[in-house]
C-alpha cells in the first residue's frame, strides 16, 4: 500500500517539479537499520512539493518509523536536499547526550537517504515503482552520496537489461552493480528488488468476499474477484478489487505461480471444478486455500484427487483447507482476517501452524459422513470395469 500511495502522490501535479533546493518534493528512503526499529530497509516517505496542491494540504505518503520520525524529517526534508541528495543517521535510543538525533527510546539506529523528487535518479525510481505495481519487476542499485560524491543509480529490468543509469557511471561500474544481490549489505550501496504486489484471486463473489478484498487491498495486494454468477460479480460490489470477472472459463484467470487463490464460491460443483483445474495446472498458485467445513473440504479434496489422478496426500499438501489461521471469532470480517493472516505468514515463511487437512483425516471424514455421489459413481465405475 505504501508504494501505491507514494506513486499516487508522485503523479499529482507539481509533486516532483523543480530542482534540488527549490520547489521539489523530497523522497526519503530507509537504507540501513541497526537494532530495534519499527521499519526495515526499503521503507519510504515522499513529501509533496512546496507550493503544490498536495503541499497545501500538508500531505506526505509513506512512513519510515512508527510515527516518531515523520514530523521531524518532513519539516527538515527540503533543507536537507538544498545541495543534493544526502544520507542522515538517526538514533532512536533514548540518550540526551547523543550527538546523533533523535533519541526517542525505540532502541535502534536508521540511515535515511534524502533525495530531491525532481532529480533524474528519483524519477527513474518512481517509474520503476510504478511499473512494479503493474507487474513489471526490476532491481535498483543506489550508490549512496558521501565523500564528495552525489547520488547515482542504476535500474535493471528483471532480465538484467539496463533501464536507467545515472550520468557519469561507467560501464564497468554498471556491470559490477548488476551482480549485487538485493538485500545484501554493501558499503555505500543500497540494492533492492521491486517486486510486483502480491496478487490475491478470490473465487467467489458472495458478501463474505467483500471484507477479504478490502483487507487484502489495504495491505497493497492486487485483488481479483471472479464468479460464474453475473449478478454477484459486479465491480460496484468490490470497489477495492482491481478486477472483477464473470467467470465463464477458468483459463480467464491466468493464474501465476506467485499468486494466492482462495476458493469461496459456496457452490460445491463450482469449487470442485475450480479446485481440480488449479491442482492440475502446471502453473498453480503458491497458496491455494478453500473455505468450508472439514467434512466438506475432505470430500472436495478426495474428489479432486480422483479427478486429477493425484494422491490425497499430495492434494492435502497443496491445499490450505479449511482456509485461514485459527484466530477465533465469527462472521465475514473475522474469516477475512484469518485468511489474510495465513497468506501473509505463508508468503513470508512465518507460517508455523495451519489447519490443513491430513490424508488420515480425509479418510476419517469420508468414513464418518459417507462418500459423495461422485466418489460412489467412481467406485461403481471401477467395479464395473
From TrEMBL:
This is Xanthine and CO dehydrogenase maturation factor, XdhC/CoxF family. It comes from the Bacteria. Residues 24-90 form the XdhC- CoxI domain. Residues 200-343 form the XdhC Rossmann domain.
Amino acid at each position: 500500500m505504501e508504494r501505491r500511495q507514494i506513486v499516487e502522490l508522485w503523479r499529482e501535479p507539481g509533486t516532483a517539479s523543480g530542482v534540488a533546493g527549490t520547489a521539489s518534493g523530497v523522497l526519503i528512503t530507509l537504507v540501513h537499520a541497526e537494532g530495534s526499529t519499527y521499519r526495515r530497509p526499503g521503507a519510504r516517505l515522499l513529501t509533496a512539493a512546496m507550493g503544490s496542491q498536495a503541499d497545501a494540504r500538508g500531505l506526505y505518503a509513506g512512513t519510515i518509523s512508527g510515527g516518531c520520525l515523520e514530523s521531524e524529517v518532513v519539516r527538515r526534508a527540503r533543507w536537507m536536499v538544498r545541495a543534493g541528495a544526502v544520507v542522515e543517521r538517526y538514533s532512536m535510543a533514548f540518550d540526551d547526550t547523543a550527538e546523533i538525533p533523535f533519541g526517542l527510546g525505540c532502541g535502534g539506529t536508521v540511515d535515511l537517504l534524502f533525495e530531491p523528487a525532481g532529480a533524474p535518479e528519483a524519477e527513474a525510481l518512481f517509474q520503476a515503482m510504478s511499473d512494479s505495481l503493474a507487474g513489471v519487476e526490476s532491481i535498483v542499485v543506489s550508490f549512496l552520496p558521501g565523500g564528495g560524491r552525489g547520488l547515482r543509480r542504476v535500474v535493471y529490468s528483471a532480465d538484467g537489461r539496463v533501464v536507467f543509469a545515472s550520468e557519469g557511471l561507467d560501464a564497468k561500474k554498471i556491470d559490477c552493480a548488476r551482480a549485487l544481490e538485493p538485500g545484501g549489505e554493501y558499503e555505500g550501496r543500497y540494492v533492492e528488488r521491486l517486486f510486483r504486489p502480491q496478487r490475491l484471486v478470490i473465487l467467489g463473489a458472495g458478501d463474505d468476499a467483500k471484507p477479504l478484498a478490502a483487507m487484502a487491498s489495504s495491505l497493497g495486494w492486487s485483488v481479483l474477484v471472479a464468479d460464474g454468477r453475473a449478478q454477484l460479480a459486479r465491480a460496484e460490489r468490490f470497489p477495492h478489487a482491481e478486477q472483477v470477472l464473470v467467470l465463464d472459463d477458468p483459463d480467464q484467470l491466468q493464474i501465476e505461480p506467485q499468486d494466492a487463490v482462495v476458493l469461496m464460491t459456496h457452490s460445491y460443483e463450482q469449487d470442485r471444478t475450480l479446485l481440480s483445474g488449479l491442482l492440475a495446472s502446471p502453473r498453480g498458485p503458491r497458496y491455494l486455500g478453500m473455505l468450508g467445513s472439514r467434512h466438506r473440504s475432505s470430500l472436495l479434496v478426495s474428489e479432486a484427487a480422483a479427478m486429477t489422478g493425484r494422491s490425497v496426500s499430495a492434494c492435502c499438501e497443496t491445499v490450505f483447507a479449511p482456509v485461514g489461521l485459527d484466530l477465533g471469532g465469527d462472521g465475514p470480517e473475522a474469516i477475512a482476517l484469518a485468511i489474510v493472516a495465513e497468506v501473509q505468514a505463508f508468503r513470508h515463511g512465518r507460517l508455523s501452524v495451519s489447519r490443513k487437512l491430513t490424508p488420515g483425516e480425509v479418510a476419517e471424514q469420508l468414513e464418518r459422513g459417507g462418500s459423495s455421489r461422485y466418489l460412489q459413481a467412481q467406485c461403481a465405475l471401477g467395479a464395473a470395469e
